[in-house]
Amino acid sequence: MEQWLEVEAHNFHSPSYYMVLHIFFALVLGFPSDPKIIQESEEKLGRVLDIYEERLSKSKYLGGDFFSLADFSHLPLTQYLVANMGKEYMIKDRKHVSALWDAISNIPSWKRVLQFGAPF
Question: Would you state the torsion angle of the CA atoms of residues 107, 109, 115, 116, taken in this order, to the nearest 10 degrees?
């Protein structure tokens, strides 16, 4: 599990954060987005998701066959990608990544978080 927390922190978080910042928050807050950063971030994130796809072809969750913090840590930024930015294809076009997203995004506690006015 720790390995996948490290992957999230060092490889998933940065490109997904920059995509959310330059697509979603630029629009909402009215500052200019940088198309170059968006393109580079999407390419980097795509490579990370390809690695996830390979891993998830062997186990249901990133850390193994059980839901863990390694999966949970992906919820907030992925929620932006699939719900607010038109980037859901990055998740949905990868069979195993899509299955993971469907599993973790439907956990009742996550659905409750979304009901409390999260900016998604």
Answer: -150
DSSP one-letter code for 10: I
**Interhelix angle for 75-83 vs 95-105, to 10°?**
110
* pLDDT per residue as tens, the chain (120 positions): 677 878 787 889 999 999 999 999 999 899 999 999 999 999 999 999 999 999 999 999 999 999 999 999 999 999 999 998 999 999 999 999 999 999 999 999 999 988 886 655
Query: Which CATH number does 2-115 carry?
Result: 1.20.1050.10
Domains of the chain, residue spans: 2-115
